[in-house]
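It is worth pausing here to work through a concrete case rather than discussing structure prediction in the abstract. The textbook approach is simple: state the sequence, then state the predicted structure, then interpret. We follow exactly that order.
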Amino acid sequence: MGGPLTVLYVLASAVTAAAVLRGAARVFLGLGPAPEEAGGKGDGDAYETTGSGEEPETEGRLGRVPDTMTAVPALLLAGAFAAGAVPGFGDAVAHAMSEATTAGLLHTSVRWTPLGGGLGVLSSVLAVALAAVAVARPGLLVAPNRALPLRRLQSGHIGDYVAWLLVGATVLGVLALPAVVSG
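Step two, the predicted structure:
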């Protein structure tokens, strides 16, 4: 794969990571301006969820995050770090998985290149920059009024997230298909 698809992947990962970083900065660090009350502008608020009918998940305020909620993300982060930073880790995992399966479908190997590493760093830098702008100056990244009909396609309900994840994965799969078939 190369060219336009590479640009798409870098931008998609940067925007996705920026959204996660922005959310973490707002929720866990309390950064950014206080949110405005819903219903003030009439600019698509009818299509957004408010959470007004939600029941509390716990009896009271938790003093700390339960271990079960920190163990899984910690293991996933450690694995992601090892896959990107430890040479040969990806090959070792692929080899172990292929040995563990009788079908032998996992005979893949990961080859890191300087270009791939540079694109990963570029995506990370873009993500941090976008998140910083979204937290410090949120008005700069607001969609124009002509884009508001798109809000109806993503209301915040879980079904919308699943539907758009499947649409995005399908589109990326179709775009990547020629490279996979020829490679």
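Step three, interpretation. Residues 38-44 have pLDDT under 50 and may be disordered. The CA atoms of residues 87 and 112 lie 9 Å apart.
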